[in-house]
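Example record

Each entry pairs one chain with its bound ligand, uridine-5'-diphosphate-xylopyranose.
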Amino acid sequence: MKIGVIGTGYVGLVQGVILAQFGLNVICVDNNEEKIKNLNNGIVPIYEPGLEDLMVKNIQEKRIEFTTDIKKAVLESEVLFIAVGTPPADDGSADLRYVLEVANSIGEYMEDSKVVVNKSTVPVGTGHLVRETIQNKLNQREKKLDFDVVSNPEFLREGKAVNDCLRPDRVIIGTESKKAEEMMKKVYNVLYINETPFVFTNIETAEMIKYASNAFLAVKISFINEMALLAEKVGADIQKIAKAMGQDGRISPKFLHAGPGYGGSCFPKDTKAIAEIGKKNNEELLVIEAAIKANKKQKQKMIEKVTTNMGNIEGKVIAVLGLSFKPETDDMRDAPALDIIKGLIKNGAKIKTYCPQGMKESKWRLEEYKESIEYSENEYKAVTGADATVIVTEWNQFRGMNLRKMKELMKDNYLFDLRNIHGKNPEVRSLFKYYAVGRK
Ligand code: UDX
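Structure tokens for the complex follow.
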């Protein structure tokens, strides 16, 4: 069976490589020629552990190829995955332009029956819009061809995308067609025989499962962050609170780590998008809207934490360790570090920073602040001469830092540990004026 994957962003590329790894023949399409050239040469444009090796192996074994020719992919594939971006429009809703452009091309080029699978995170109802768009094109061409639309949302985490795709917690298949359902079982045969849980449902339910899952996790993080703010005021310890809460099986310990707020390509975008879907359907989603507001407040609170504890940060040098929205990725989309750095600079500070993967993207995202930011070669160079160090992302190499050396290199000894990675080190409080999240 040949599979076409349209869009080679995070989702499309990982999906394509994993399907090839499952033994299927895959053709991946993107309109960016440079990217396709690199991919055919085995170069992955993103930092995602394990992905490049797996891709190169599947290129060598001739199970995956990359092209800019969408017509070829449509003609050759039985199943077509749509995995293009759905960036937020001005009102926060998902912009469906690229999804519908692809649907249009499918309608334009198909010559036999297809299963069209939506992998992009799209508002409820998009599956039907995709169907309509393809059908309209077929009508224009006066072609009578059979096709099915399936919603098959992804749940991969950046940095763990390969594993999440190889061993998903569940596979969601939303379709009204029995035939398409059987086809999807064949596509995911490896997972199906491995007894991965499959949920077969209608398109709308599948589309909503994705938003509901992401929004729930975002609410969970905002909840624990809010508890952390209170814990600081009353003298409680958020890590103990989270651990004890997590021991209740109904709550679970996952996604209960207090920090500087959630970021990334999914939670900020998807919470806003589902809130917008709520409004369009005359249903205000109060809990999700509160989580969005709380996340904004959390980042502001981190800026205040540094500024008020240091008294005045005018002219002070602040080392920021970790820029990417989480470890093991170079992704800077909605990374809390961006807002925190901007806030510290607005309050008068100069920034020295180091991140194992996030510096390249930060340079253009923080272009207008470049006079106030110095990018360092490593974490020790970044803290040299600094009045304060702020750990924003919990990369393992920051966990393992030599704190004595760090203190010696710094000018003053403020340490703001926004991921609570050094709290258990008995030395940390004697070496530094130490501030964590969610405890005094
Ligand atoms: C998320 C979902 O986990 C994934 O299922 C979905 O497909 C895409 O969105 P991702 O954005 O890659 O994945 O990262 P994730 O590990 O979920 O973290 C998101 C953000 O929440 C990060 O900024 C992270 O630092 C933050 N977070 C996560 C916390 O602050 N505390 C936690 O306990 C967990």
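The radius of gyration is 24 Å.
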